[in-house]
Design brief:
With about 210 residues, the protein is mainly alpha-helical. Helix content is about 70%, strand content about 0%. The protein contains 10 helices and no strands. Helix 1 packs antiparallel against helix 4, helix 4 packs antiparallel against helix 5 (about 80-100) and helix 8 (about 145-160) runs antiparallel to helix 9 (about 170-185). The protein is globular, with a radius of gyration of 17 Å.
């Protein structure tokens, strides 16, 4: 029973619609009505600029991090196989909550930042490595989508060949994550190939006027 409650709590934490709250409360718009229509960090960067995008990304990462930490309330021994499996389930519940948020009509984002937060909570060194990959790619290309895809592909490579994670469930999770992120970004990949993908405005603010929205 406690495990089911923890998974539901993780989903509810993931469902906190950060991008929607920031866009509505601060800018007077619904981010889902602009750009790609996703309520995530990428679209927030694109529409509202780096300040709002960074805030949304950090909070969405925190959702995944906190959701995984709920495993400390479980009866499982630290770092046991059931403990690691529960961490993965809790993190995935938060990611699903971000994609289908109960608090925002089940219209969310793609869950990349929340996924990063989940990994940070389970394997901090791996997560830091992925963030480095993401930031470097973002700095040089200004494409959040390409940065997310690059980090997701680096995830199983790090798990399998660099950190040599022993838990089979985590290894499979890393491989599945890479495939799913690439799959959910197929439209972005097509736009990247065609040169139509939008770049994010780093180091400058987007000027938004309420009356223009």
């Amino acid at each position: 029973m406690i495990i089911a409650i923890l998974i539901v709590l993780a989903y509810l934490i993931g469902s906190i619609p950060t991008a929607v709250l920031v866009s509505k409360k601060v800018y007077g718009i619904d981010i889902r009505e602009h750009g790609s229509g996703n309520a995530g960090a990428t679209n927030t960067f694109r529409i509202l600029g780096s300040k709002a995008g960074s805030l949304v990304m950090l909070v969405d990462m925190l959702k995944g991090f906190v959701a995984v930490k709920l495993c400390l309330l479980s009866p499982f021994a630290w770092n046991s196989e059931p403990f690691v499996n529960l961490q993965i389930f809790l993190g995935l519940a938060a990611v699903i909550g971000h994609i289908f948020p109960v608090w925002a009509d089940f219209r969310g984002g793609k869950g990349i930042a929340t996924l990063f937060g989940m990994i940070l909570s389970i394997q901090p060194l791996v997560a830091i490595s992925l963030v480095v990959v993401f930031i470097l790619m973002l700095f040089f290309t200004r494409y959040v989508s390409l940065s997310s895809i690059s980090a997701s592909i680096a995830f199983p490579l790090l798990i399998l060949f660099i950190f040599n994670e022993p838990e089979l469930s985590y290894r499979l999770f890393a491989i599945a994550t890479a495939f799913l992120v690439v799959l959910t970004h197929y439209k972005n990949i097509n736009r990247l190939i065609n040169g139509n993908e939008s770049k994010v405005p780093l180091f400058r603010k987007r000027r938004m006027r309420r009356n223009d929205m």
